[in-house]
Amino acid sequence: MFNFFEEYQEILYNCEKPSRYTGGEFLSAEKDFDKSDVRFLLAFPDKYEIGISNFGHKILYHVINSKENFMADRVYAPENDFKDLLKANNKLLYGLDSKRSVKDFDLVAFGLQYELAYTTVLAMLEMSDIPVYSKDRTDDDPVIMAGGPCVFNPNPMIDFIDLFSIGDGEEVLIEVCNKYNELKGQSRDKILEELSKIEGIYCPKYSKTVTKRVAELKLENHPTTSPIPHFASVQDRAVIEIRRGCARLCRFCQSAHTNLPVRERDKEEVIKIAKEYVKNTGYDEYSLLSLSSNDHKDIEEILEKLNCDFKDKGVNVSLPSQRADKFSLKLANLAGEVKKATITLAPEAGSQRMRDIINKGLTQEQIVNAILASVKNGWSKIKLYFMIGLPNETMEDLKLMIELLEFINETCRQNGLKLPRITCSTSIFVPKPHTPFQWCAQNSLAETDKKIDFLKENSRHLKNIKINIHNKKLSQIEAFLTRGDKKLCDFIYKMYKKGGYLQSWDENVDFEDWANTAKSLGLDIEELATKQYKLDEELPWDFIDCKLPEDFLKNSYRKAMSI
Ligand code: SF4
After folding, report:
1. Taking the C-alpha atoms of 514, 518, 519 and 522 in order, what is their torsion angle to the nearest 10 degrees?
2. Which atom of ligand 1 is nearest to the CA of 249?
3. Of 22, 440, 455, 526, which is most buried by a Cβ count within 10 Å?
4. Candidates 241, 242, 249, 250: which one to mutate for ligand 1, based on the most atoms within 8 Å of Cβ?
């Protein structure tokens, strides 16, 4: 009889943090693999600590396991040491709950959160002895699926994935399981062909176009338990989704444009879920998840009611960033009743002109007033999100960003306040598919360098302010991959063959390697990242219908360019 700990003893004994690979966490599902009609594996192509905290992963695990005859298991990308040990000991990757090989499952679905995870998907297939190319798989291999934000342009992974789930996954995956259950035993081709008829499923072999799937936010689909890792993960808290989508539609924001229509969870439902989740898990923190939390119409009432219950128990709430134009001190106070954490705001751009171009709809007054009110009321740490390299940005816009920061300090001083510690988390614009800026060029590395130097040089005197800037080379690779066409499959394959693994981690990524590999295939990372598409040009991801009104993106783009 198979004994997992005997079989994998050598590997578990010699790897770092074996508890990443043993499963059996408190509240993990205990479904019987052999008695389940459909065995579904949720595969996360990043480290355990990241994957187990991912909210989409938790929803799907809950939704599938709540069906009596289906089981969902999980697998995360092992660290390099464990990966090497698997190979050296001739062992296969397995699901954490069932300890069954990935290859034994009926369906395996990868959650693609960021493009740099693509090579990890291929490496995980290899660790599972599953052919990396879809065309090489046989009836004995599982159906390989992918979902998540990256699949709104699936082209770079189209040779490797059998089915893409475009849009919300919770309802479509149950339909996939039901259909698969009916078709079990038929040929792989027949199964793929039938599954490709489900709305929201794109099968490279059988589909020409696809319309994204939109799910309702149903109470029964929200988890109130989830596996609690044996050690700290990136988000040790209960997460309650209060809203999906964001109607603000900032022009660079892919999440907003691909998650329409906005759906809001009823306040009583939010409260019920939060109480149950905290009770079941014992977490001392919960987070109210949404793209823009203070846009929920009952957010203050929800927090008031939850505070009544949680305050004496020492349960904190964490809120994602507030909109400065709807900044509510009452809300900040409610969120900070147990512990005053950091106030987070997202001006995105320093000048009014740029904020208008990106459709941010925020004035300098609103930003400064929100910060001033926070500092007056005891917050000493402020986090501001900015983005540089936005379309039509000039050095004057960056100068105005510095002036905004100076003005914040000056206003605090005039009000007799101690200067807060301000961290500016600054990302580099990446033109994302299905946004009004999908046609726009990213700045070249030389242009970005100039802008970073300018910001660093001109902010030196602001001792209380730290400007952190995202890795410019990784942002360029991200732009290259997110705008890519099918030609990029050869590139992804070559990078995987060269050992590209867990590439979103700085210690693993070698930009020169990416650039040289692209060159060897006649591709140029900077050329594609900085390409300005024409408005009437066909885009590689045009076959995906995001249910936006015709010409909506074009009109929004034109409006931005006219400012
Ligand atoms: S407010 Fe935030 S989530 Fe909403 S569209 Fe703008 S950037 Fe996206």
Report:
1. 180
2. 5
3. 440
4. 250
Q: Which amino acid is at 493?
A: Y
Probe target for ligand 1 pocket from 243, 260, 262, 292, with the most ligand atoms within 8 Å of CB: 292
Residue whose C-alpha is closest to residue 57's, from 36, 37, 29, 19: 29
Rounded Cα distance, 438 and 483, in Å: 8
For residue 256 and ligand 1, the question of a CB distance below 6 A is answered with: yes
| All residues at 6 or more sequence positions from 140 whose CB lies less than 8 Å from its CB, including other chains | none
Is residue 324 predicted with pLDDT exceeding 90? no
pLDDT at 503 over 60: yes
Tokens of 489: 């499959």
Following CA atoms 148, 149, 154, 159 in sequence, which dihedral angle do they give, to the nearest 10 degrees? -40
Intrachain domains 4-211 and 237-341 with the same fold = no
Query: For residue 384, what is the enclosing H or E element?
Result: strand 381-388
Q: Which of 81, 86, 87, 133 is nearest to 492 (CA)?
A: 133
Ligand 1 and 349: CB distance under 6 A:
no
Ligand 1 atom, smallest distance to 246 CA:
4
Task: For residues 508-521, give the mean pLDDT.
Answer: 93
Q: Which CATH architecture has domain 237-341?
A: 2-Layer Sandwich (3.30)
pTM, entire model? 0.95
Can you tell me whether residue 382 is helix, strand or coil? strand
The letter for the amino acid at 265 is R
Phi-psi region of 160 (alpha: psi -120 to 50; beta: other; left: phi over 0): alpha
Ligand 1 atom showing the smallest separation from residue 360 Cα = 6
Tell me the CA–centroid distance for residue 262 and ligand 1, in Å: 12
Q: What is the pLDDT of residue 313?
A: 86
Domain ranges of the chain: 4-211, 237-341
Say which range, 116-130, 332-346, 365-379, has the weakest mean pLDDT: 332-346
- Interacting residues of 251 by C-beta distance below 8 A, sequence separation 6+: 357, 358, 359, 435, 436, 437, 556, 557, 560
281 lines ligand 1 (CB under 6 A): no
Q: Which of 124-133, 216-225, 266-275, 301-310 has the lowest mean pLDDT?
A: 301-310
With beta carbons less than 8 A apart as the criterion, state whether 37 and 70 touch.
yes
- Matching CATH number, 4-211, of 3.30.420.240, 3.40.50.280, 3.30.360.10, 3.10.580.10: 3.40.50.280
Whether 334 is in the pocket of ligand 1, judged by its Cβ within 6 Å, is no
